[in-house]
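Field log, afternoon session.

UNIT: design team B
ACTIVITY: writing a sequence onto a fixed backbone
BACKBONE:
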């Protein structure tokens, strides 16, 4: 199934509602982080994904580092991250570089995410663990959350291999284990190419099976044509696998090569969904047009 993609119009860009426009933050805070990550040749999803909240997060001493290079082996139709050519070799010094950046920036809460690396035997799980361990060595008071891919892909991939990869990270005891379903069941194919809705739910279920003390988290992007009923069904599916925390935000088209926005959900609608999510039992909910996976993660 593919979504209809109307010819892109300049008016679509101009029609972005006022509640999705916000200042990028203090130039000094942005430039300091940008200089440090450039000097160390590391990456943040804040920059690679052009997150609208990066100024606010940097000011609150949180950041989301992108491990394993800036090139993804998947080709999701919503994502800003580079794709379509060979990924970079794994930088064995990346854990140290990230830990040093955390130390210099005095970050109190860090989120580690990564591109999908279906080309690697462990899909990058080992790099997550090495980075967690090195951050803790240099920054013992810093909490580390992970936002992982599904770890399914490559030669010989299967459920056992996926479980082993997830178990490796769970054993490192992150402060929270996040894996985003991103969209509703019906739209997973066209929006998240190479991913499966049930597989993503399975990632969150595995974490709880392996260690029920680690909070799990997931996120939804609205605006791909989903209905309110489908969003509520997705939230119920997440609660059914024990997901503790939820973020809900608006999809914003990164470029004319990406999927067009089908609907801009209003702040009032996000507030309503956030209230429903809390009533369903999510312990921590962030729901708003500019909410992203790591928004206020330290709370």
């Amino acid at each position: 199934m593919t979504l209809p993609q109307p010819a892109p119009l300049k008016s679509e860009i101009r029609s972005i509602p006022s509640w999705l426009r916000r200042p990028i933050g203090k130039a000094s805070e942005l430039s300091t982080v940008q200089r440090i990550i450039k000097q160390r040749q590391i990456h943040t999803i804040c920059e690679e994904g052009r997150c609208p909240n990066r100024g606010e997060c940097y000011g609150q001493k949180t950041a989301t580092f992108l491990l394993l290079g800036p090139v993804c082996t998947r080709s999701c139709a919503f994502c800003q991250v580079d794709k379509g050519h060979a990924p970079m070799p794994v930088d064995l010094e990346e854990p140290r570089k990230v830990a040093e950046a955390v130390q210099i920036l005095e970050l109190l809460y860090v989120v580690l995410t990564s591109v999908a690396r279906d080309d690697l035997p462990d899909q990058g799980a080992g790099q997550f663990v090495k980075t967690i361990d090195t951050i803790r060595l240099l920054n013992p008071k810093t909490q580390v959350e992970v936002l992982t891919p599904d770890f399914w892909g490559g030669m010989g991939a299967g459920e056992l291999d996926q479980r082993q990869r997830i178990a490796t990270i769970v054993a490192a005891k992150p402060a929270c284990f996040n894996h985003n379903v991103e969209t509703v069941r019906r739209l997973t194919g066209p929006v998240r190419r190479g991913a499966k809705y049930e597989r993503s739910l399975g990632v969150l279920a595995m974490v709880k099976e392996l260690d029920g003390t680690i909070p799990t988290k997931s996120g939804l992007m609205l605006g791909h044509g989903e209905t309110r009923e489908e969003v509520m069904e997705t939230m119920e599916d997440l609660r059914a696998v024990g997901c503790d925390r939820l973020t809900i935000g608006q999809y914003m088209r990164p470029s004319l090569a990406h999927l067009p926005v089908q609907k801009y959900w209003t702040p009032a609608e996000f507030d309503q969904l956030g209230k429903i999510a809390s009533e369903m039992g999510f312990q921590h909910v962030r729901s708003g047009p500019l909410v992203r996976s790591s928004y206020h993660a330290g709370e």
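LOG NOTE: The mean pLDDT is 85.
NEXT ACTIVITY: expression trials, pending approval
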